[in-house]
Amino acid sequence: MQIIHDFKMRIKDYCNNSMDNDYPVLTDCPVCHDVLIKNGFYKRYVIVSNLSYIIFIRRYRCKHCGLTVSILPSFLLPHFQRSLKDIFNIIYQYLKNRRLLIYRRAVFFYVKRFNKNLNALIIYFRETANGHPCFDNKKAIKLLEMIKECKVPTFAKSFHNHFNKCFMAL
């Protein structure tokens, strides 16, 4: 299980801090509510504008049920190596301007994932962001602009908390 946390810092700063970031202290297991204990770190790659960083992700383990919980920084999406900001910009530039910021296959992968989740995105904005206009035939571009207004990392965390899944998940 992954919990998204906003560390309020840039990716480079998070990377430079290594294992000394200000991780939240988790005490209760989200499943059985028993005690969580620190269970080390794991390394993960982050791709930002074609630069690759290795970061550390804090992990906790439940003493009772054995569930592991990871604290994922808000600049990442679960199961994606590219940064959230990069993924957003790649989708936005392709849908708005037909520009390929990275290789075609990856762009189409991100756009396909995004388009498969349009209905969930619409539901999210209807349930949490009142006052937005109705959607027309350019739903994807409109949604991207709405996400941009929310600040992308804040939106990704909020969407994950609302649906318990990443907005790029199938």
Strand order of the largest sheet: 1-4-3-2
User: Number of DSSP helices?
Assistant: 6
The residue ranges in which pLDDT falls below 50 over 5 or more consecutive positions are none
Question: How many domain units?
Answer: 2
Order of helices and strands: EHEEEHHHHH
For the biggest sheet, the summary is: 4 strands, mixed
Number of beta-strand segments: 4
Please state the average pLDDT score: 87
Proportion of residues in extended strands: 15-25%
Overall outline: globular
- Report the radius of gyration as a whole number of Å: 17 Å
**Termini separation:** 17 Å
Structure description:
With about 170 residues, the protein is α+β, with helices and mostly antiparallel strands. The protein folds into 2 domains: about 1-75, N-terminal domain of TfIIb (Single Sheet); about 85-165, no CATH class. The chain has 6 helices and 4 strands; from the N terminus they run βαβββααααα. It has helices at about 10-15, 85-95, 105-115, 120-130, 140-150, 150-165; strands at about 1-5, 35-50, 50-60, 70-75.
